[in-house]
Design brief:
By secondary structure, this protein is an alpha/beta fold. Helices cover 43% and strands 12% of the residues. Helix 6 runs parallel beside helix 7 and helix 11 packs antiparallel against helix 15. It is globular, with a radius of gyration of 24 Å.
Length: 483
């Protein structure tokens, strides 16, 4: 392919993607609305894309930028002079490393566990799965915050880490970190605060005079914090920070191996080779925006959040899950209003709103992560008309017999043929077996919502597995002629 062919093909491929600018994609991406900063960050990513963070002595520029980012974050999280940090690829890797480091800090514990509220991010369940750590889940209270007494009661001699959220992703509220950290400290256990969402917003919210539950290193007992640069620091994707109160707490995170004929492997993260592009892009973004700039952006995002939350609360048929404490808003719908249809209607109006399926006795909800570039007035106008259209359409029907069948299926017993049938029945595959998302997702989400979580997982894994298979291309050129 010629360079022109490649550029044209890339542009064509990107046409089906959600937009990353404009403030209308309310999950996955975060938009500051600063085109000049975005362009500068892309230049930085390109300039350092070939650099390798594997060896900081070979690429000292990357180490300097990483240390600079950690130093900037220190003031946001009330970090002591001893605070250290590591740049990771994202919030999930930061959370994984927090669990791995806690596990490896306690080699005396043979069956390590972590204690988490049921609203904790799924990354901690992933960490438990990867690292052989039991995840002890504690139910949250009616306010959707972790229950400190229940957390304290769940800590035992196997516990290596306790986790709190600032805020929780699903509900947008901050856990009572002081009480949870105190309970962990009383048992000599590490306490991690997952501030991947709030770490670059809550400090500025406090400076703006808003009430913020204490969550930083100013809280005794907090030993580590994760905060994402590619969320509300508005950096290009692939950048998060895992911060530790002191170097001794970080040390078990490192992996070193010299027992082979090659170079001594020494890693601070789950990755070995790491492109320098995300590091440079994050550094350029943070330096371009600066502390005062982030204060303005936080104020914009928080004011938009206030307006959107108030607008949702005033809409007949919708109710806030909780009063938002950061920039996340979740809402449930009354029985005569289908929340999944509302999400579809918003998509038809150019807004991506994330559906959240039911959990236990919790109803399904719509979820938005609001950026500085989000226009609250335009959002609420679209939401109002979407609610009207969804109410007119009525709830998505799910056959009672189908729902009962889904509840009785054992995911472990399903083979490829059965999974293919389920994908077709759910609208994720056509009669010819071709996979893809339908134009309207409400019927798919309604079926998934009545399925037990384990079956949801099995069906969606099967869908992803089948999507991620290359389509053979026709053989052309010299290879086809045998030369």
């Amino acid at each position: 392919m010629t360079p022109e062919d490649i550029r044209a093909r890339l542009a064509a491929l990107q046409e089906d993607d959600l937009p990353v600018h404009g403030g209308r994609t309310l999950a996955y991406v975060y938009d500051a609305g600063l085109a000049e900063v975005d362009a500068l960050a892309r230049e930085a990513v390109a300039a350092f894309a070939g650099s390798n963070g594997l060896d900081p002595t070979a690429f000292p520029s990357l180490l300097a930028m990483e240390n600079d980012l950690v130093a900037f974050a220190r003031s946001l999280v009330d970090g002591p002079a001893t605070m250290v940090g590591t740049l990771t690829s994202g919030g999930t890797e930061s959370c994984l490393l927090a669990v791995q480091g806690a596990r490896d800090s306690r080699p005396d514990v043979r069956d390590p566990s972590i204690v988490v509220p049921d609203t904790v991010h799924a990354a901690f369940h992933k960490a438990g799965h990867y690292f052989g750590v039991r995840v002890v889940v504690v139910p949250t209270g009616p306010d959707h915050r972790a229950d400190p007494a229940a957390v304290a009661a769940a800590i035992d001699d196997s516990t290596v880490l306790v986790v709190a959220s600032a805020p929780s992703y699903a509900d947008g509220v901050v856990d009572p970190v002081p009480e949870i950290a105190a309970a962990a400290a009383a048992r000599g256990v590490r306490c991690h605060v997952d501030a991947c969402i709030g770490g670059w917003v809550l400090p500025y919210a406090a400076r703006l005079g808003r009430p913020v539950t204490p969550w930083t290193f100013a809280v005794e007992g907090v030993t580590s914090i994760s905060t994402d640069l590619h969320k509300y620091a508005y950096a290009p994707k692939g950048a998060s920070l895992l911060l530790h109160r002191d170097p001794a707490l970080r040390r078990p995170q490192y992996f070193a191996h010299a027992g082979w004929p090659g170079y001594t492997m020494l890693n601070a993260t789950l990755q070995s080779t790491r492109s320098g592009g995300p590091t440079a892009g994050a550094w350029a973004t943070v330096r371009a925006i600066g502390d005062d700039g982030y204060l303005r952006l936080a104020e914009q995002a928080l004011c938009a959040t206030d307006a959107i939350a108030a607008g949702i609360a005033a809409l007949p048929g919708l109710s806030l899950v909780a009063t938002p404490e950061s920039t996340l808003v979740a809402a449930t719908a009354d029985a005569d209003l289908d929340v999944f249809t509302v999400c579809d209607e918003m998509a038809a109006r150019g807004w991506f709103v994330q559906p959240q399926l039911s959990y236990g006795d919790r109803a399904p909800s719509l979820h938005v992560a609001i950026s500085a570039a989000t226009d609250a007035t335009a959002f609420l106008a679209a939401l109002g008309s979407s609610v009207e259209a969804a109410r007119a359409a009525g709830p998505v029907p799910v056959d009672a017999g189908v729902a009962e069948l889904l509840r009785t299926l054992d995911p472990a017993s399903l083979g490829d043929a059965e999974l293919d049938l389920l994908l077709a029945a759910g609208g994720l595959a056509g009669d010819d077996g071709a996979l893809g998302l339908p134009e309207r997702m409400a019927p798919v989400n309604a079926l998934l919502d009545v399925a037990p979580p384990a079956l949801r997982e099995a069906v969606l894994v099967a869908f992803l597995d089948r999507l991620a298979r290359p389509v053979p291309e026709p053989v052309t050129g010299s290879f086809a002629s045998g030369t």
